[in-house]
Structure formats: structure tokens, C-alpha cells
Amino acid sequence: MKPFTSPVVNIKKLDHYFGQGDLRKQILFNIHLKIHPGEIVLMMGPSGSGKTTLLTLIGALRSPQNGSIEVLGNQLCDAPTERLVSVRRQIGYIFQGHNLLHSLTARQNVQMSLQLHADSLTDKELSERTATMLEAVGLGDRIDYYPEKLSGGQKQRVAIARALVSHPQLILADEPTAALDSKSGRDIVEIMQHLAKEQQTAILLVTHDHRILDVGDRIVRMEDGRLMRAEAIAALP
Ligand SMILES: Nc1ncnc2c1ncn2[C@@H]1O[C@H](COP(=O)(O)OP(=O)(O)OP(=O)(O)O)[C@@H](O)[C@H]1O
Fold it and tell me: Whose CA is nearest to atom 10 of ligand 1?
């Protein structure tokens, strides 16, 4: 796939509402956000401020209503379902609950994702790429383990391997370290950071975890549905 040179995400004047009629409530207000290839953007903000809603709009998991939201060169506002589905397939998702399939081994979980994205690979190539990816996240000796035999941090690493194996140009991560102890959380984000820089993947990561702020290039803050000023990490105390 050709690497992206323009912003991977380009959002202008985005509003979002939930509900109908008298119950209609505005959740996002006039959002502007650009994310460039290889950039790691952390999104923080209080519970209920709209972070997950924005993430799911960028991920083409719900339809945007007002404004402009371009993801990997595709306009998502008023987009037909096929375009949303096609964008969805180009994004790597890492969520807190890792969502591994319990009846499949680590290798099978990762390989299944690769199969969905790369139909031109032979079985041998699929298997090699899967193993290389699991080795890259430090699970070379756990490749044939089922999720129940892995720790929380190891399962989250499988989820990262699964999200990255097809070399997506955008990763969306919603609190990937929330369920992990400090050391595992740190390891996870460092793996993501390393792989992102190597593959020029852009990452938008929602977090409440102050221990990982230094892995980002930029922090944006959501408050009451509004994105507040972006801060350069270097400027933080
Ligand atoms: N499907 C929905 N229908 C109606 N309201 C919703 C829906 N999803 C979210 N909301 C409301 O939208 C607001 C923003 O929720 P959202 O989940 O985006 O916040 P958040 O910042 O991700 O919170 P948290 O940090 O707790 O995950 C909340 O007031 C929530 O109740």
C-alpha cells in the first residue's frame, strides 16, 4: 500500500448529536483535528466528554452527520456504507477489552486479521508474517497459546500484533493500558510507539494514564464535547 503523505485524519467543523426530537443532544462541537503519518496523538479528557464518540466516528464505526471528516483520503460525512466498510478495513483497532477470540491461539487470532486484509499472500507468507509480528511484540515463545493461558499484558500484545500485522496507516486505541499494571502498560505503549515509527503508522490513543504521556508527539484534550488546545509534549513540565 502506498504511504500517505497528506494528513491521515483531517477533521473540520465536526458536530455530532445523539437522540431524536426533544431528546436530541449535541455531544461534539466544532471539532478540528489533523493527524499526520507516523504521528502519535494522545487524547485525554473527563469521562463522558466525547472521546470514544470521536474515535468511533474517525474509525467509520458510526456515520458522521455535520462537518467534514476525511480518513485516509475518504470523506466519511454522508458516505455510502461501502466506503465506511472499506475505511474500516484499513484501520487497526485496539480496545481495552482486547476482543481476542478465545477458541483461537495467538497465532490464529493474528493470522485471521491478516487474511482479511491480504488476500494475495500464500499460506507460508501469512504464517511467517504472523510469527514475525508476534515475535516483535515479545510473544515469540507464546505463539501457539490460547488467550486463557496468557496474562492481561500478553493478551493486549496479541491485540496489538493483530492490529499492526496488516501494516495499517492508522491505529485507533481506546484506553489500551487501562487494565494493565504499570510495567505492562508501559511495555505495550513502547511497542506501539516503536512499530508506529518503523511503519509510519499514525496513532490516536485515548488514555487516562498519565504514566504514558511521553510516548505521544502531541496531546489533545476533550472537554464537554470540545477539543481544547493541543500541547506539544516537550512543553509539559
Ligand atoms: N449511543 C449513544 N446514545 C446516546 N448518548 C450517547 C451514546 N453514546 C454516548 N453517549 C453520550 O455521549 C457522551 C459522550 O460519551 P463518550 O463515550 O464519547 O465519552 P468518553 O469521553 O469516551 O467517556 P469515557 O472516558 O467514560 O469512556 C456521554 O454523555 C454519553 O452518555
Answer: 18
Q: Which domains does the chain have, with CATH numbers?
A: 1-90+168-237 (3.40.50.300), 100-167 (no CATH)
- Ligand 1 atom nearest the C-alpha of 52 is 22
- 188 alpha carbon – ligand 1 mean position (Å): 26
Between the CA of 48 and the centroid of ligand 1 the distance, in Å, is 5
In testing the pocket of ligand 1, which one of 14, 16, 18 has its CB within 8 Å of the most ligand atoms? 18
Q: Whose CA is nearest to atom 18 of ligand 1?
A: 50
**Per-residue pLDDT reduced to its tens digit, 101-115:** 899 999 999 998 888
Which 3-state string (H, E, C) describes the chain? CCCCCCCCEEEEEEEEEECCHHHCEEEEEEEEEEECCCCEEEEECCCCCCHHHHHHHHCCCCCCCEEEEEECCEECCCCCHHHHHHHHCCEEEEECCCCCCCCCCHHHHHHHHHHHHCCCCCHHHHHHHHHHHHHHCCCCCCCCCCHHHCCHHHHHHHHHHHHHCCCCCEEEEECCCCCCCHHHHHHHHHHHHHHHHHHCCEEEEECCCHHHHHHCCEEEEEECCEEEEEEEHHHCC
pLDDT value for 233? 54
Q: What is the pLDDT of residues 161-204, one digit of tens each?
A: 898 888 899 999 998 887 777 887 888 888 888 878 888 899 99
